[in-house]
Amino acid sequence: MDLDAIHKAEQGILGAMLSRPDALDNFDGVLRAEDFAVEPHRKAFAAIERAVATGQPATPLRIGRELGNDIGGMSGAEYLGRCVAAAAWTMSVPDLASDIVEASRLRRLGNLCADVDSRIGGGESSAAILEAVERETFAIAERRGDTRYASLGEAAEMALKLAEAAYHRRAGLSGFSTGLADLDKLMGGLQRSDLVIVAGRPASGKTSLATSMAKGLAAQGLAVAFFSLEMSGEQLGIRLISEASRISGSRIVRGAINEAEFGQLTDASRDIGGLPIFIDQSGGLTIAQLSARARRLRRSKNIQAVVVDYLQLMQGEGKRGQNRVNELTDITMGLKALAKDLDVPVIALSQLSRQVEAREDKRPRLSDLRESGSIEQDADIVMFVYREEYYLAQSRPKEGTDAFFEWEAKMEAAHGKAEIIIAKHRHGPTGTVDLSFDASLTSFGNLERAA
Asked: What Pfam families does the database record attribute to this sequence (predicted)?
């Protein structure tokens, strides 16, 4: 649209709003004041919205007072009177609104190009510029670039819809199922816009739990972005195929399988290959780089969840004078912002420090995260992975002693079990969930109980 056509379209919208109070209902939430190219039109639209919202009459005289007395040689009221007259010939109001929004998007893209040119001239890094471009283009495409407010009534309505979804869903979940029934029962599933931290010591099973969740989500047809900063895509694939085929990963890597098992691997590979899990195996990503890639996947693959393995392998932005704790704070704040921006759950794995090993009871606590930036504050859910069997195996007493028989009994009780400790839950209760864990397959599952 040329400038004259945009000008007339904006006049037509304003005239329709002034002459037909219900016209705003046709594009409420679609058209915004900043979409108008002409400054007086922006002011008029905002004034009409305020009047309608407060139950005041939106007349040319009343709204015109806010515009002043010099708009093209006319008073505000006289100018708006002409807008009302112009509205008589306009096409449908929704079509006009769409044209105005389209013109606004094109202007924003033009401004973005100019901004990029300016940033290049200012000596900014390519990574910073690309992040700004990704953020702005996503905002333009999704119409989510500004702050959105919800009244208490709107928030209550959204909560009711969430409860209704849980009521009608067979599993009684308001969020996405992880595929682990007992975990879902306590958490209510994975909620949109949540930052979920899965923390534990090395070899506790963090990555295995994350892959189980990712596979559970993908099995429901939900696309998942998996940022594997530690393991290669091949290694992650072996874990998934091992779990699906029930053949240990070590045997797969060594080729210690027979012909029948190779057939199982082929079938498992075919099944896994059909799951919508998109693996990014780049190491040392910054939060800006990861966010940009997640946005691209949101647009191109419609991802519904993000997994990050793991936080401490992400790089800081290199801000001068920043220590590692501050960098981790920026990273977790960025991941929470990403979860809200994309409206998807973000599952981020975190390594715990050695201080856990110094205690007699080695079950992780929230205080173990205190030296890792603002993880506890930013997270909606913090869960710890704890396997008693792992620690018992490291303290085997001498055979034949009383201590050995006591240890053997404990090992038998702990064998094949894991505890998932929900230490923080912004939306519900905390507690511990018992899961099965197969060390040879590095896979979690629902714990079978005696009838």
From this structure: DnaB, DnaB_C
